[in-house]
Amino acid sequence: MWQQVVKHRFIITFGVFVLWMLFFDQNNMMEQYKLRSQLNDLVDEKEYYEKEMHKAQQEYDELFTNQESLEKFAREKYLMKKDNEDIFVIVPEDD
User: Is 84 within the bounds of a domain?
Assistant: First the structure.
């Protein structure tokens, strides 16, 4: 029995090493999976915020380069009006 263990000591050592790395090490397979999942979530979040930043930059550029869009924004957002106009705000009733 001991002769077979001594004869296959490298295979046994390699097996123990693989088991240790898969389950007991600080960087085991479950931790790697969790970190990979977290990385994918963060990459998706980064892409979302980059799209939102691009959209906000386009709205900003349009707002401050076009006088008509600035007027439309002021009228809709802040209910601004010209001197000879009346504004009627319609608020829907909650049922």
Answer: no
Q: What is the pTM of this model?
A: 0.55
Q: Token match 């900003």: residue?
A: 60
Element (H, E) at 42: helix 29-65
Please give the residue that has the higher pLDDT: either 52 or 88.
Answer: 52
Distance (Å, whole) CA 21 – CA 31: 11
In a domain, 21, yes or no: no
For residue 52, being part of any structural domain is answered with yes
**Per-residue model confidence (pLDDT) at position 58:** 92
Structure tokens at 42: 């963060």
CA distance 32 to 79: 54
Per-residue pLDDT, 45: 98
The whole domain housing 49 covers 27-79
How is residue 15 written in tokens? Answer: 């097996």
- pLDDT: which is higher, 5 or 64: 64
